[in-house]
Amino acid sequence: MKSWSSPSIPVLPNSGSGVCTVQVHDTSTNELKAVGSGDEFSMYVCGITPYDATHMGHAATYVAFDLLNRVSRDAGRKVTYVQNVTDIDEPLLERAVATGVDWQHLAQRETQLFFDDMAALRVIAPDDYVSAVAEISAMAERIAVLRNLGLVYQVDTDWYFRTNSQGHLGDVSHLDADRMRVIFAERGGDPDRVGKESPFDCLVWSSTREGQPSWDSAMGAGRPGWHIGCTTMALNRLPSPFDVQGGGSDLFFPHHDMCNAQAYALSGNRLAEAFVHAGMIGLDGEKMSKSRGNLVLISHLRAAGVDPMAIRLALLAGHYRSDREWTQAGLDTAQARLTSWRASASCDMSAYLADIRSAMRQDLDTPTAIALIDGAVRDAHDALISDPIVASDATPSVTPSVTLADVVEALLGIQL
Fold first, then answer.
1. Cα-based torsion angle of the residue sequence 334, 339, 340, 345 in order, rounded to the nearest 10 degrees
2. Residue 150 CB: number of other CB atoms within 10 A?
3. What pLDDT digit, counting tens, does each position of 47-60 carry?
4. Residue 126, SS3?
5. d(CA 46, CA 41)
6. Could you tell me where the DSSP H helices lie in 123-170?
7. Residue-level pLDDT at 398
8. Cβ 278 vs Cβ 322: under 8 Å
9. Contact between residue 1 and residue 129 where contact means Cβ atoms under 8 Å apart
10. Of 8, 35, 247, 371, which sits most exposed with the smallest number of CB within 10 A?
């Protein structure tokens, strides 16, 4: 599926001259982990359910994994990046009914808006952008494999996966059963459904519901569950295991834990070597989410004339793993910083590049990288003030080996 056009990315000095270590925080071990196999790096990031516009929480997640993409490329790796769109799911169907809009039209409209927002934020497009609807037959085939292995069973006319059949439930989240049960119920699960063998068994095939779309399969007419969808799309396109499974921190359980359990059952391997999660973005003290309706929409900010690079820079001011608030003051600070950087876009960053790279390769430490860049800009300004000959352009300037504009574009995705 075609997504958006990727931005051009400058190649920095010594980029790719030997593969360098990039570390990120792995939720499954609660430790920093070097990611990337040799000179390659593979990543799957869970995509949107397109029933509403892209909000700041979405942007924070995809910008975070865009950083990992950029830093991995700069470290000398060939990146294979897969992202999906969950263009069939309960919230989408419910919104379509509520608004009287055809569910397919709604999904297409909001997916295109997401593309426009990602392009404006200069996020590198996935190598493979996968529609869940287009992959339903492949998902049904994976469920049939699980059925042949005796790992799924029926409750009424629906099919459930024996989630802990391989003993790997909790490998990602490490939650106890009581906490799992609460979160599973909050995030779309049905731990109390009568007839299930375990509260944590997850739906893999939902039989046809009145007024909803359905597809034929060996399990009868219906559609796949959320978790088996991502498991299938990832396993069918990436190595087993691939390097990084990414998403927001609200996905570590149940979604990533259950996808991982399914991957063990289908492949004998964990889904990914590392499970990496971006923090939540809040507004007025609460997590920003479609269900709460407390959204700051990227498209609305763009329509109001806000520079997308200021939006991106405001998000980068906090560490990608931290939960943080979106505020007007933070956006104002980012805009002022962007103006300062643009005024110094051509300054020589040779003396700072190694430290900035080091910060970014150590769990995408944007606050440290930004502080280093701010310091470089101050140093350049102070040098101009202290040398009136240079300040008046009385002598020809020396072309820098690497400019501020190139560094922040390549590593941070900020266009000056």
1. 120
2. 9
3. 999 998 889 999 99
4. coil
5. 17
6. 136-148
7. 59
8. no
9. yes
10. 8
The secondary structure of 346-400 as a DSSP string is TSB-TTTHHHHHHHHHBT--HHHHHHHHHHHHHHHHHHHHH-HHHHTT-SPPPPP
Question: Cα separation of 170 and 187, whole Å?
Answer: 16
Structure tokens at 227: 């978790």
CATH number belonging to domain 23-140+205-287: 3.40.50.620
CA distance 113 to 376: 36
Question: Of the candidates 106, 71, 78, which has an alpha carbon nearest to the alpha carbon of residue 91?
Answer: 106
Query: Phi and psi (nearest 5°) for 160?
Result: -120, 145
Q: pLDDT tens digits for 181-227?
A: 999 999 999 999 999 999 999 999 999 999 899 999 999 999 999 99
Cβ neighbours for 415, distance < 8 A, ≥ 6 positions apart: 7, 122, 309, 405, 409
3-state secondary structure of 29: coil
Report yes or no: 347 and 400 within 8 Å, Cβ to Cβ: yes
Residue 303 CB coordination number (10 Å): 9
Q: Taking the alpha carbons of 196, 199, 201, 202 in that order, is the dihedral positive or negative?
A: positive
- From 63, 32, 118, 116, select the one nearest 316 (Cα to Cα): 63
Does the N-terminal peptide bond of residue 400 adopt cis geometry, omega within 30 degrees of 0? no
**CA separation for the pair 343, 337 (Å, rounded):** 10
Cβ–Cβ < 8 Å for 326, 56: yes
Amino acid present at 360: M
- The backbone torsions φ and ψ at residue 24, rounded to the nearest 5 degrees and listed phi first, read -135, 165
Is there a contact between 27 and 253 (Cβ–Cβ < 8 Å)?
no
- Amino acid occupying residue 44: Y
Whole-angstrom distance, CA of residue 381 vs CA of residue 391 = 9
Residues 360-395 have pLDDT tens digits of 999 999 999 999 999 999 988 877 776 655 544 544
Give domain limits for the chain.
Answer: 23-140+205-287, 305-412
Q: Chain centroid to CA 67: how far?
A: 10
- φ, ψ of residue 40 in degrees (nearest 5): -125, 155
Task: Report the alpha-carbon distance of residue 59 to residue 122 in Å, rounded.
Answer: 11
